[in-house]
Amino acid sequence: MKENKKPKLNKKPMDKKKLTFVVIFILIVLLGGGYCVKAVQYNTHYFPNTSFNGIDIGNKTYKEAIEKIDQKTENYTLTLQIDGKDWKKVNINEINNKGECESFLKQNLQSQDIFNWPKAYRHKTKLTLPDAIVSNRLKDKLSEIKQDIVNYNVDKKSATDAKIRLEDGEVKVIAGKLGTKIQVNKAMDAIQKALYDHKSTLNLDDYFVQPHVTGSSDSIEEIKEKIEKIQNEKVEYILNGKTVEIPNSEIKKWVILDDNGQVDLDYDQVHAYVTELAKKDTPTGKNYKFKSTESGTVNVPFDTYTWTISPDQETPALIADILKGKDVKRVPITNGAASPKGKIIGNSYVEVDLNKQKMFIYIKGKKVIETNIVSGEPKSPTTIGVFYVWNKERNAILRGPGYASPVAYWMPIDWTGIGIHDANWQPAFGGKLWEQGYGSHGCVNTPPDVMAQVFETVPVGTPVLVFKGNETPKQQAKDAEKAAKGLQ
């Protein structure tokens, strides 16, 4: 018999592209179906991560959410505490309006974008009643609590700011103190939030009025730093070319805080110090120890050429410099022709030796002119002292009682009419002529030819030292008095 053979089926394997397409299609169907199933679920359930007034209602139906909220809030009471003691209690029954809450929750469930449910897994939704639909009972209760806080504050104290006190120059920080008054608006915000979050207690001590400035505030630290910087400044004066330092112990006593708590210096104390400094270091009223050309060392009283510190002008200027918080080196504000900036008598000056009846001119330390002179006669002696050439004039007429003397060169040195000038009427110069009837009315008579050189050589402002030797201050005073009566 012949064997019957079944025809072979021609089976070809599925194309790889078709297989991939089928797999992707199945996945899309599954994912799309799952997505739609979830979307349908969230038509009746709240999205995950949804809460109402702090109560988690995610993935719950409307009914389940209401039941959970009722369970959580059934016996809810918020206790407000002050100083660790219960002050007031707020029960949910005093503020709850169930109808408004249920209506609000239902509306939110119905407004969910169910096809946007994946987003809810990444973001939280916190539901709270808008202000527009907060129950009147809650508003009334909050208003009541607010008024209670206002009444509580009536006899309570405000906070006191930290401040700096100076005790014997030492910086002391007085700590600020909390007030016993409650900050009304901040406390009310916290109470409303505590009700929404269903907290059981709220400590109103956290809302006591705080000091604006505390011991660690930047403003306090800045003031401390400024005071300490000022107290340790190096403050120096330049007086007669020398440096005089004000002791830090003195500056420490001057530092004060003004009515606004800002760093300042005590004007009266600074003024008193500057006044004392003026008395101590000013040349006025003192003698200048001078090594003369031919009469040895002599003491010459300061007269028109001097300087005196002006306390009324110097005090505010010094205070302003010190308050900058940097080291100070200054020349004080003075009155007078001389300056304290350098040595009061430098190496350029005019020397008039009445005993020797001579005049010497020194310019930059070098003697450039030496001449005999005739000074004031005994009844109108030439005034002794340290003066200066305050003007120069050509062809002047010197006038006084009973005389008018024309001169070619006139250099006044004081304010009474005494100066240096040529005198062509003198028969000679030097020796004892001043007491033999040829003496002047007080001026320094100089040979005309020499006077021309003096006039050209000596600039305005040059010191002029007039002396007789080491006579007593009493005799100096007598001579000055006599000279004041003369006009020339």
UniProtKB/TrEMBL annotation:
<keyword id="KW-0175">Coiled coil</keyword>
<keyword id="KW-0961">Cell wall biogenesis/degradation</keyword>
<dbReference type="InterPro" id="IPR038063">
    <property type="entry name" value="Transpep_catalytic_dom"/>
</dbReference>
<dbReference type="Pfam" id="PF03734">
    <property type="entry name" value="YkuD"/>
</dbReference>
<dbReference type="GO" id="GO:0018104">
    <property type="term" value="P:peptidoglycan-protein cross-linking"/>
</dbReference>
<comment type="pathway">
    <text>Cell wall biogenesis; peptidoglycan biosynthesis.</text>
</comment>
<keyword id="KW-0808">Transferase</keyword>
<dbReference type="InterPro" id="IPR050979">
    <property type="entry name" value="LD-transpeptidase"/>
</dbReference>
<dbReference type="GO" id="GO:0071555">
    <property type="term" value="P:cell wall organization"/>
</dbReference>
<dbReference type="InterPro" id="IPR005490">
    <property type="entry name" value="LD_TPept_cat_dom"/>
</dbReference>
<feature type="coiled-coil region">
    <location>
        <begin position="213"/>
        <end position="240"/>
    </location>
</feature>
<dbReference type="GO" id="GO:0016740">
    <property type="term" value="F:transferase activity"/>
</dbReference>
<feature type="active site" description="Nucleophile">
    <location>
        <position position="443"/>
    </location>
</feature>
<keyword id="KW-0133">Cell shape</keyword>
<dbReference type="InterPro" id="IPR038054">
    <property type="entry name" value="LD_TPept-like_central_sf"/>
</dbReference>
<feature type="domain" description="L,D-TPase catalytic">
    <location>
        <begin position="348"/>
        <end position="467"/>
    </location>
</feature>
<protein>
    <submittedName>
        <fullName>Putative ErfK/YbiS/YcfS/YnhG family protein</fullName>
    </submittedName>
</protein>
<dbReference type="GO" id="GO:0071972">
    <property type="term" value="F:peptidoglycan L,D-transpeptidase activity"/>
</dbReference>
<keyword id="KW-0573">Peptidoglycan synthesis</keyword>
<dbReference type="GO" id="GO:0008360">
    <property type="term" value="P:regulation of cell shape"/>
</dbReference>
<dbReference type="InterPro" id="IPR022029">
    <property type="entry name" value="YoaR-like_PG-bd"/>
</dbReference>
<dbReference type="Pfam" id="PF12229">
    <property type="entry name" value="PG_binding_4"/>
</dbReference>
<dbReference type="GO" id="GO:0005576">
    <property type="term" value="C:extracellular region"/>
</dbReference>
<feature type="active site" description="Proton donor/acceptor">
    <location>
        <position position="421"/>
    </location>
</feature>
